[in-house]
Design goal:
The structure holds two protein chains of two kinds. Chain A is α/β, with parallel strands linked by helices. Chain A is built from 16 helices and 19 strands. In chain A, helix 1 runs parallel beside helix 3, helix 1 packs parallel to helix 9 and helix 9 packs across helix 11. Classes of the chains: A alpha/beta, B alpha+beta.
Chain lengths: ~425, ~90
């Protein structure tokens, strides 16, 4: 590109938000440059992970049939883990096996590289191994980026640089992060013979299993454990609130939490015979877009994790579909702004309107209190022990006569306990 | 699978491409900041440790670039940047 030339858009970061934006922009005929600091797209990305397809299926109708996803999830489990025992709820249903499948396990390195190729086929220019160091401001308006010692110009910059988003901070759209709004995920990918994996998890063909664990897995701290089956590997890990990890006793080093989780009998037998293949970690935004001052400014939009679009409502933890959707709507906003020749904040404000009219903001409004409600230590410390204790007593057959069932349960449920449960129930109603 | 695979061995599974300079530094004069003690707990790669003098040292090899240390220590304590383009951890699964 010669002097004085400029792209329609520069996308910072070839993760799901950035690639969804680039794909959409290139598809509409815009000149778009994607800058990625990794050796290849996906090299810096980590997921738990599973992607829920229903909310974003129609945004990219041609993408899904050939997408390199791992397994569609047909077996859902939630395990409440006490110190010495656990109680598991399993959900299976014909609906989970029917097409179109609701959710799939995914490995980002594989998926992002493929998605980047689809964006390139549409005409996007992808440059990897390039870290963006700064934004270029001209009279207060973002007009490009500095990367690899060069100045690159564009009508608009889309910051999709991930959860830490230094670009959004430099543009004044976001304050330095508050640890209370973030969790850290730590994961191992464990390779396992495909047949062994399918037998072990009762899977047919491309069916997959997802398991969530709460309680002792994080030593009672905010967070939980997860397990997803991939084609021929298992993604196993924990997520823990950074504030709890740093400031709540007992102090346990993050890697040791994962090791203890792996050694639980409920988990150890599932990964037995597997070969660890990768160890990864990533910060997860838990605070939602409310942690942003604004999602756009003069010549700039922010999408994906960079804008805090990730949501934990306990039973589901989601980020990737918000990343792809916000990347898509950021692109639509840019296409709209280009038609009017106005890339100022006023011209890009349509981004917010598009998000408000979509599932994205509807979800974040519906679940705006979920994080506050879930940050209830009783959920992670008390209830797993309580239900484990009730299960133990119900199933126990002692040497003498067995106690009647109702008094067995009732001794765990004092008036004080019932009152505390009622209070928790009232709080849970906000989710 | 081995009973307890050490952290070093786990990090050894990953592909790393070396950067010229460390991308995270403890700012001079901040080595005794109490927030660095928290970095010892939260760092998933176990890169922060306390030396016999009671100050915290950082060994950057094996950094997963997650950002957790920056969140607990803040930019007053850490000079934190991503490694240069094409360097650092390169996930093959992610």
């Amino acid at each position: 590109m010669g002097e004085g030339e400029q792209f329609d858009a520069i996308v910072v970061g070839a993760g799901l938000a950035g690639l969804a934006a680039a794909y959409t922009l290139a598809d509409a005929g815009l000149e778009v440059l994607v800058l990625e600091r990794g050796d290849y797209p996906g090299a810096k990305n980590v997921t738990g992970g599973r992607i829920y397809l229903n909310p974003i299926r129609e945004l990219f109708p041609n993408l899904w049939p050939k997408a390199p996803l791992e397994r569609y999830i047909t077996h859902e489990e939630l395990c409440m883990m006490a110190g010495e025992r656990s109680l598991t709820v399993r959900y299976q249903g014909n609906e989970l096996g029917q097409e179109p499948h609701q959710s799939c396990s995914i490995l980002r390195s594989k998926f992002d590289r493929w998605l980047a190729r689809q964006a390139e086929r549409k005409g996007a220019l992808l440059v990897s191994r390039t870290r963006v160091d700064d934004i270029i401001l001209t009279e207060g308006k973002v007009t490009g980026v500095r990367a690899g010692g060069e100045e690159l110009r564009a009508r608009v910059v889309i910051a999709c640089d991930g959860v830490m988003s230094f670009i959004a901070q430099k543009a004044g759209l976001k304050s330095p992060a508050d640890p209370a709004h973030y969790a850290v995920g730590i994961k191992e990918v464990i390779e396992l013979d495909r047949q062994v994996l399918e037998d072990r998890f009762n899977l047919e063909g491309d069916e997959g299993a997802a398991r969530m664990y709460m309680g002792a897995v994080t030593a009672g701290k905010f967070g939980g454990g997860f397990l997803y089956t991939n084609r021929d590997s298992i993604s196993l890990g924990i997520v823990a609130g950074i504030e709890d990890l740093a400031h709540q006793e007992p102090y346990i080093k993050a890697p040791e939490l994962l090791d203890a989780f792996k050694q639980r009998p409920e988990v150890a037998q599932l990964i037995q015979g597997g070969e660890a293949a990768e160890y990864s970690a990533h910060v997860i935004p838990e605070g939602g877009p409310g942690t942003m001052h604004r999602l756009y400014g003069d010549g700039i939009l922010v999408a994906g994790d960079a804008a805090g679009f990730s949501m934990n409502i306990g039973i589901t933890v989601r980020g990737m579909e918000y990343a792809m959707a916000t990347g898509y709507y950021a692109a639509r906003a840019v296409i709209h702004a280009r038609e009017r020749g106005d890339f100022s904040a006023a011209g890009l404000a349509v981004y917010e309107t598009l998000l408000h009219d979509s599932f994205v903001m509807a979800d974040f409004q519906n679940f705006s209190s979920s994080l506050d409600v879930l940050k209830n230590p009783r959920l992670f410390r008390h209830y797993p022990e309580l239900v484990g204790g009730i299960a133990r007593d119900l199933y126990q057959v002692p040497a003498g006569s067995k106690a009647r069932l109702f008094p067995t349960v009732k001794k765990h449920l004092s008036m004080a306990e019932l009152w505390a449960m009622f209070q928790d129930y009232r709080r849970m109603k906000q989710i | 699978m081995s009973q307890a695979m050490g952290l070093k061995a786990k990090l050894g599974l990953n592909v790393f491409i070396a950067d010229q300079d460390p991308h995270i530094r403890i700012k001079p004069g901040q080595e005794a900041d109490p927030r660095l003690k928290k970095a010892i707990i939260v760092c998933p790669a176990g890169l922060y440790s306390e030396n016999p003098e009671g100050t915290v040292v950082l060994s950057i090899d094996g950094c997963l670039e997650c950002g957790t240390c920056l969140l607990v220590c803040g930019s007053e304590v850490l000079e934190w940047n991503y490694p240069g383009g094409g360097t650092g951890v390169q996930y093959r699964f992610g």
